[in-house]
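From the shared-data thread, chain only:
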Amino acid sequence: MTSPATPGRADSIIDADVADLGVIFRYLISTGYRLALVAAHHDLADDEHAAASIRVVYVMVAGPPDTRVEIHLRLPIAHPVLPSVSDVSFTAGRFEREMQDLFGLQLSGHHQPSRLVLHQHWPEGWHPMRHDAGPPPPFDNETESYPFLTVEGPGVYEIPVGPVHAGIIEPGQSRFSGVGETILNMKARLWFVHKGIERLFEGRHPDGGVELAERVSGDSAVGHNLTYCLAVEDAAACAPPPEAQVLRAILLELERIYNHVTDLGAMGNDVGFGIAHAHTGRIREQVLRLNARITGHRFLRGGVFPGGSRVDWLPDPTTLHQIRDDVHQIVDIMMVNTTVVDRFTGTAVLAHDDAAQIGTLGYVARLRARYRRPSRPPLRRCPRAPDSPRPARWRRDEPVQGPRCRDRLLRRSHRCAAGTGAAG
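Structure, as tokens:
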């Protein structure tokens, strides 16, 4: 059954049966929708549903104009069998494996139904995101090492990475097998740190979820918290005032700037060009100090809340133009260094079809011209795989993309929020 949604929520919600899921999913994919999210929920019995169930929600989006369709599927607790759509969507297959681990879903027709989130030492049959999971049982500390695929042959070598790193990033383990500069195989294992954040949100007051959302990932405090606030506003069928939306857009742009600048330096450092890393560190610190003046926190915490947004101060557009020029100068220096160009050329080539199948987003999708972002000019599709260091140049342009738009946002915000410091 398809039903119209509440204003501000999904355009339509489809309550599907297990037998119809594949047909509905394939139809939406064929008409231009893409999968944005699959999430499972353990719903307890209530006045509407006599028995507890696992509710699976597929969020499909398309645009422009922005359109959202949700497919809702209920599975019985005793036998939660989910027909896989991984043959249509690679991304869906990953979500399905995560739900299998955390909620105990039984996947039917999945091409690779192995564990994804829970490593091999986790107890069998214990699914931590379910309300009836109970306390954690004993973990198996005697589990053997993960059976990485062994690549053999003349000149083949292996490079183990992680799971503990020298930096401050969370644990992750990789095994590279290569010959010379060519990587033959790479296996990555993540999810060493699972916090159960979804369950931590349960029972909180809407305002109380802000601090948790901002701490999901420190350098994406605005992005994660804005997503949370949008979900709260969506559930309440309300929208923040236009002034708050302008401030949110500015905060997102500022967060995007310092992250792209950081990654530019990391790219240079990875190929032995440390001077780029040093200079981008300088620029990043400059932006973080701006952030501290804007919201009182270097990572822009406290700037977004359900129903509104707030800032203490906003920079002049000239300041951002100076940062843009500084970034361009550093990348120009990188791109005339023969070592950098040699290492970047031909690296990380992502074909258009692969980008579509994986479901890439953001700057990666724009580089491959896979999707349009609403309210942006049409993207130019690359006619062939890049044979030059395009990713580095795109990283250069990303922090300062759309300067006229950002200038307009700043001018508008100065007019709307002058003297108030908040909107909401």
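The longest helix spans residues 242-270.
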